[in-house]
Amino acid sequence: MYLSSLAPELLLNIMSSLDANDLAQLVQTCRYLQNTGNKILRQEVDADTLNFVLGLQRPYVRGWDYSSVRRGSVMFDVSFTIIDAYVESRSKPRVSTLYFASPAIFDILADQITKRDKRIVDGKFRIGGEKSNLTEDRRLPIPINTLVLDRGCTDYILLALKKYSHVHPASEFSITTLSTDFSLSRHDVSTFFDTRKLTKLSLGFPVAFWEYDYSMGFPNSEASQHAHFALNKNLLRDIRTLKDLLLKVSNLEVLSLRPQVSLLRAIQPLLVLPPALDELGQAVEGLTKLQTLKISEYLFHPAFFLPVPKTVKKLQYKKVNKLSQEWWTRFAKAPLTNVESLSVRSDGAKIGSGCIFQKIEKGFNIEDIEIRSLKFFICQGAENPCLPKDLVECINRRNTGLEQSISS
């Protein structure tokens, strides 16, 4: 028997007996149930919440298969944890996590908050251009009915979430994790969220090229060429946008930066790094609650070492074969006072494809290292010639009783 053949009165009775988790499973597979469920939920929400939900239902492009969606669309995903306040008062609260992004997720979210007997915490908001960037756990499948939004329509959802984020306290609703794969300058996320509630921030963003500023004249020597190599406007804007964002996320505990670096052009060394990078470093040092810092590839320039706040205990670097000798020198001199876990991983690229300078640096040593607080150390690609030859030796000499995993 098809559900659509049931009498509306009977179907409404069935729907009224379902809780949020039941609806969450059903709305993904049955459009008829979804539409019926939406009507019931809307009868239960107050005017403010209803306006919020309606604000999310502005025009969007929906695709059942991401590959079939027209170019220029993006993936949109929201997940959150529902905690039953009644059960929470006992010894073992019941926590349910929903991983999907159908239109009805916002109705369910609004319903749970309005009832006031449940709290929605650990909210996760993801925007990205690729499926693989939408979930940190790659084992979790992206639902077939994940929303695919036209870039021009994304602002409507962000504006609606902004209102909701500011109206409800963190104890009732909070987006604690924000992941995006947009250009930093395209969306200032602090405009759309109460960033004081953010505790986890994961940013993936394309990096503009370093380009020679010919307004300063043509270089007549290699030294002058290096001195005149300047930031282009897009790159400088991205650096400042990231700095401004980090100044507003004072409660951040986990920060992951994933710049998308292109190797189509060689990167020139700079004799002096631009002041904008120093300002970015100062913003990161101001994150006094940060405990985990993850960086993939290099951040804006291979020689720029991002300062690590004293509160950080877990430090992770990926694709380190794209970093310069100058970066490693600065890393070795950084005290990293409270870092207990250090992970250093290369991407396996060899000389010529992994090292990004025109003049390849290889076979160098750092001689010594300042960090002395390590308990765990992971080094993947220790024999990659783009890494210091004595990195593992220096780590072991300064950190006794170290639990480590070293691979070539």
UniProtKB/TrEMBL annotation:
Alphabetical list of InterPro entries matching this protein: F-box-like_dom_sf (IPR036047), F-box_dom (IPR001810)
Domain F-box residue range list: 1-44
Chain ranges passing through the membrane: none
Entry protein name: F-box domain-containing protein
Species of provenance: Orbilia oligospora (Nematode-trapping fungus)
